[in-house]
């Protein structure tokens, strides 16, 4: 079995395990390359018919290409899509100008919290990877969250041999991470192999492309001429710049990611 | 082929060793010297180190939690990629404190090989042995030892030989052998990625070169068909059986039986989206349609027709216990093996073992304490299909749950005839 096939099979096992053991689950779809790959794997795991909803946390600040892509593939893949928004914060004018931490926390974390409460999910599938950020490298595959979505990173459960803890108190939920062991370049190789559609923003135009996408307000492009998946893979084989270098929310202070994640951020 | 270049393989290496013997620092040193870090991550490391002192704190690359940096310890396991020309390594950092042993076990459980670090001045300590015991427990055979902090013993070869002898004897006792024993200084960079001038008496490879000799572990040898059923879903009015093949080859049209009842049926369709297959191999996740549609559930196991499938309800296991409340003889717990989930009773504790001393504490014991190990005989209180761990890792290892929490792990050493 090839390296990519092994990664794929491991992820499909985790996805099926999540559904088998929790049933009430949702897939967090940010429309980026990683969560679109996860969506693809969920389709493979359930023969094209995903038996749970996909959730898009819509801050209202996403790139227009993201919305267009979302609507197109929601239709093409026949997804049951939930769009989660914190409309109260939006209408009271929350924006990155009020502080990136405050903005992410209100428009993403709070929106997710409301969505969880409304739909009573026991688990969420997320496409985070260890190689993205040192804090994400500390994660478990099945990671419990309390009622306030807090991550007790100083006391994480034992997890081995694909045996994960799934017992939950009534107000807890699990964050499940089927792509934890993938690297950025693995995701792109898999996208190439499987011909997975991705948002155009990843491909270079006028010497620039996005390596990581989120809100238009907080993402900067990198210099690049990679205008195809093959060229992106070649670029990643030699780059000296990290994937999230263009993501503003990591930069405000050294522990922003830890603070955001401990409060329930993705 | 999709790529002109072959994809570089990745080998996962667990870092093992006692508190403060230098696991995280060594990872930092390896990453910096191999240029595995993006430039902005390197700058970030320098910047954040300055809050704590003048030197770049190499350990901060994996010690990312604020609490870890403030207390200068590793709390939880982490992983970072080391890039070399030959292949990439996933370096799994682990905490050295006994309080965090479950995190070490979690991280190391996905390793192909291990790098054991020993402080040459302090020598072997509790977690050196406990970690070695766990590496053996996890069936990690591929091992390199780094004797760190050689600068603190003035690069003295007698100190190196003394600790080398002690650890070699201990490893031998467990049936393990280090491929190399490399004297290094992670802080100073001696013998890490290039030979050190300070230790001309050492003729072996530097650590980076030694890592090249680590081999991926051999795959499972079992050949009988085993597919633990993971789930059953309904699509288009049909029951689809989901499961991963742990051993054997599955062919369309094949006659199979369903453990525990051993009813016979046929595999009429093997679905692997977006199509169907005639044959599926180990590690593949499949969706099956069986004709006739016999009763089965999660935890049933699809097996072949040719071999004798004998469920034995008494097993001998080697277990590691992680709960402040001791595991007592006579206790009932929940055992999970692959997708199987069954109640078990601890019939006897043949040996109680202190992994920090690599010693048998007691034969025929009444309990096993926190972070201790033991050889136990247990009875399954329902059907469960298991194998010896050397034949089939997937069906040869299990976890133990108490109050819905994973508190122990075990490997199956053998089965007893039904009495």
Description of the molecule:
The complex is a heterodimer of chains A (266) and B (419). Chain A has 266 residues and is α/β, with parallel strands linked by helices. Helix content of chain A is 37%, strand content 10%. In chain A, the strands form two sheets. A six-stranded mixed β-sheet of chain A has the order 3-2-1-4-6-5. In chain A, α3 links the parallel β2 and β3. Chain B has three domains: 202 residues, 3-Layer(aba) Sandwich (Rossmann fold), CATH 3.40.50.300; 78 residues, Elongation Factor Tu (Ef-tu), domain 3, CATH 2.40.30.10; 103 residues, Elongation Factor Tu (Ef-tu), domain 3, CATH 2.40.30.10. Chain B is built from eight helices and 24 strands. In chain B, the strands form five sheets. Chain B has a six-stranded mixed β-sheet, sandwiched between helices. The longest helix of chain B is centred in the middle third of the chain and has 17 residues. The radius of gyration of chain B is 24 Å and the shape is globular. At the A-B interface, α1, α2 and α6 of A face α2, β2, α4, β7 and β8 of B.
